[in-house]
Each structure stands twice: as structure tokens, then as C-alpha cells.
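Hi Y.,

Following your request, here is the sequence exactly as I used it, all 340 residues.
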Amino acid sequence: MVKNIMNIFIDTNIYLTFYHYSIDDLEELKKLLAALRDPSLTLYLPEQTILEFKRNRESKIADAIKTLSEQKIPDSFPQMCKDYPEYKTLKDSIAAFQDAKAKIMKKLQKDVNEKTLKADQIISELFKSATKIPQSPSIIKSAKDRFDLGNPPGKKGSYGDAINWTSLLEKVPDGEELHIVARDKDYISAIDGTSLSEFLYDEWVDKKRSKVFLYGSLSDFFKQHFPNIKLATELEKRIAINKLVNSGSFASTHKAIERLSSYTDFTDKEVEEITEAAIENDQINSIIQDEDVSRFINYVIRGREKSIHPEKLQKLKNLLHVELEYEDVKDILEENDLPF
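Below is the corresponding structure, written out as C-alpha cells. Let me know if you'd prefer a different format.
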């Protein structure tokens, strides 16, 4: 997990894509929710974004359901096709498709009405975890002024984007970078079509004394900053390991251990990180004899001794008051070309 402070803003339309045909899977939202458990990441949520989301959720879902309902596959074929055995398979597959589609449509309608779609649940949690920015009179006035002057972002007849941008300018601390996830043309450079518009970038740098970055999707954001993380559970584990490694108190060590104890598999690199932390961090090694800490460390290294540097393994065993078996020492030293 990135240790520096990271601020992120997600445009309303990005949230709404998870109710329509999106290039991102819901797993991306889950990863963001997991990432927000790290205090170094802040999701900023202007009140304007919440209102836009509430106003447009229903119409976005209605359009998606309409598109789905109108999707059809051919159900009539030339007479000559009927002479082949595959024809029955084809007709059965079409019938199965129609049946499954009808069932999905029925379940969708129920979940939409009750707001129990997976997207509803995750976005609701994201909104709860976010740092909200109320629409103050000063924000609204500044947004209207910039819009009336023709400054981006903003669409004809709508102050929404201007209010969101002004909210971020007012709330995000000076000197801290901002990462924007949006596909709205009001944010995008007319030159390369991918980076933030020159006007907005220069304004942010001038007023906030920091950089600002633009991503077209959540997956682009995660590819840039967490390229090896594919699933939300992997990101959750990564965050928990970093919290253990950087633990500054006994309480935070116990808390990190509690979270990590729910995982059953660790890579060699993760084992190495945990081993080094247990040796070097006084907030861990000072309480390594505590039942939960000792049990966890023993679990992590058990069966993985040969992937740990002999000297580090010996230090860890000393801390744990566990003796290395003669054959274990011999095998480890031989595999690392060290004298026995």
C-alpha cells in the first residue's frame, strides 16, 4: 500500500456505470472499499455528487433494463437446418436463454426496487466511508461565478461539475495530490484525450501547490497504483500487512494480527516482510510471546523455513524461544551455499 497521503475523487458517472454496461467489474469498487481501510487514502465526496447519483440512478438502471429486455437472438432458421442433430441443441439453448433472461429480469426488478443490488450495497458503503463536502453558500457562489465566466468544468445549463470542482478546491488540503476518476469531457484534455485539461491542471497546481491526475476508470487507477492486486481480498491483505509492518503501538500490532489471522496463504515475499517486521519492529517483537502474536508468526513461517534467510530465521526463532532442528539448519545452510 502506498504510504503517502492519497486523495481520490470519483465522478458521478463512474458510479453510475456500475448499473449499466461498464468496462469495470464490481470487483473494482470492492477494491476501493478495501483500500479505504487504510487511513492514508481519502475518498472525497461532494454533496453535489451524492445528489447527482440519487437523481440519475433510476434512469440509468431503466435504460440498462430496457437494453437488456430488447436483446434478442434468432429463433427462426431455414428448413434445411432441421436435418442436423445440432438443430435441437440450438433450439434448446435458445429456450434456456429466454428462460434465464426472464428470471434475471424478475430478480433485477425486485432488487432495484429494494435497492439491494450489489452495486447499491457497495456504493452505499463507499459513501459512508468517504469524506463528505457539504454544499456551502461560498462553494455554490464560486461555482456559479466560474461557470458564468466560461471556466471549466461545466455543461450548458448545469453548474454540477463546477460545484464538484470548487468543492475539491476548497476541501482537499493544500500540498496534497488529487486523483480524479472521470470520463466526462469537461475534465479531459482536448489534445490527448486522456489527461486532465490544461486549464484545470494549472489551476490546481497554482492554488493547491500539488499535482492532480486523471484516470478514465477505476481499473486504470488500480493498474497505476496497485498493479499486482487483482482481487479486493488481496488488497485487504496488502493493507493489513503494511499496518503490521508499520505498527507504532502494541494495540495496532494486535489489531493487525487479528485481521491477518483470517488469511491462510502468504507469498514468499509476504513471509519475508512479516519476518523482517517481527525482528525489526519493537512494537511486534516486544510482545511476540503474546498468544495471538506468537501463534500467527509460527503459522506464517511453519513449512516456509527454507524460503527465509537463515540468519533472520534464527533471530525469529530466538525471539519465539523455539529451537531449530539440526536437519532444518543443515538443509537451509546447504541450500543457501553457506558453511555448516
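The mean pLDDT is 88.

Thanks again,
Q.
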